[in-house]
Amino acid sequence: MIERREFYIDGKWVAPAAPHDLHVIDPSTEEVCAVISLGDRADTDAAVAAAKRAFVTWSMTDPVERLRYVEKILEIYERRAEDMARVISLEMGAPIDLARHSQVTAGTWHISNFITAFKSFEFVRPLGPHAPNDRIAMEPIGVVGLITPWNWPMNQVTLKAIPAMLAGCTMVLKPSEIAPLSSVVFAEIVDEAGVPAGVFNMVNGDGAGVGTLLSTHPDVEMISFTGSTRAGIAISKAAADTLKRVCLELGGKGANLIFADADENAVARGVQHCFNNSGQSCNAPTRMLVERPVYDRAVEIARQVAESTKVGSAHEAGRHIGPVVSAGQYEKIQALIRKGIDEG
User: What domain count does the chain have?
Assistant: First the structure.
């Protein structure tokens, strides 16, 4: 069993201030696969303090230097792609082939695109032709708190940590406690890349604990959160007293509109997209609204696709879907299915 109780603070792996073990469950076996520790106020304060100290120098580094660090992160990330795929599959149940070819590569794609965009980014730019002597200066905001979900771990971590790093911000990452192992590997990658101590910090914890502490901390200037609407509302309220900038990407399931003149594969394609990642994506088209003349045919196609979709262990290769992430998530899905049946 994997034991990763330490947090990454100020360039070092450090023990939690107080022991608070949490078991990580393998969704494929429903057995404990790892042990982490949940952080508390002392751990959060230490990470924020490290980030605040590092901001003084990191924010003043030449952008070219920051770019070199991120390019090194990408190099190591690609080298450790298999390690990353295996822990993502283990922690949140993505089939190993999906983890290799979609989950991990989402991070690769984002890091690569940020590198490309950064090379032409202007930190000081003209205000406009109406004010030829005025300039807009893009400056790092300070310490940012990054709170990420379990469904696409590296997609979200790289979307937050990499642009923050390039901008000159320092940060504290709180990954989902359900799927924390991939962020441990990411912290190892950052460490190997030689990113200066305190620029990137990671503290495991739950939303009510570390999440709330980051959202209310007076030395955190910004919170970036991806997750549920309920949690986003709570974070916005918690951050208000310290006038933090808050950036939210909240849960939402899109409607899939099928008209009578849609191509013959539209329904099957929509159902397959819905089932991708076992339906655990914010862009999963979980509602299909069908024009009445083709409704019955759409229902039949959807049934056929569902019945032909294979479900299996995340540890097996193949084009099947894996388990959902937890018993709680399974029960939530069953309740929604029951509600749909009851409402006709």
Answer: 2
